[in-house]
Amino acid sequence: MQVVATRSPAGERILVASDLPIWDTLRVYRLRWTIESTFSALKTRGLNLEQTHMTAPNRLSRLFGLLCVALAWIMRIGVEETQDKPIRVMRKKNRPAMSRARYGARELGRAIRWSKMSFQTYLDLLSTPFPSLGGQNTQPVRC
């Protein structure tokens, strides 16, 4: 078992224990963290997938596909909106008060209820490229 230590782009310390070679450990961990963050946004931190009581595989598959499209949309909105209005940081934990997914969902909900202009802007975001996060040159992950 090897322990790999690094810093995130935000400056946080990251320690990963694995039996993989060092560079493979970091590459696999980045992918795994992306998947974990996605499932977190689909579940408790955004779209509440776990609250469905569906058991039919074909219906669950369609719901999952729809939620993936919705997640991409609200993440796009969250990233766009945090450029102008950053998410508040909690003092005690030094972390954002909410995820970008939840922020995007909140802003989309407000636009649907109150502002036709904002909703049209958010609708237009579906056809624009997604910017890279944190100024990194990252390759898209294929699902």
UniProtKB/TrEMBL annotation:
Question: One GO biological process from the UniProt record?
Answer: DNA transposition
**Where do the Transposase IS4-like domain residues begin and end?**
27-72
Q: Which Gene3D superfamilies match?
A: Transposase Inhibitor Protein From Tn5, Chain A, domain 1
* InterPro entries named among the record's database cross-references: RNaseH-like_sf, Transposase_11
Q: Which GO terms describe its molecular function?
A: DNA binding; transposase activity
Look up the signal peptide feature and give its range: none
Pfam families, per the entry: DDE_Tnp_1
Quote the protein name from its UniProt record.
Answer: Transposase IS4-like domain-containing protein
The record lists the organism as Deinococcus cavernae
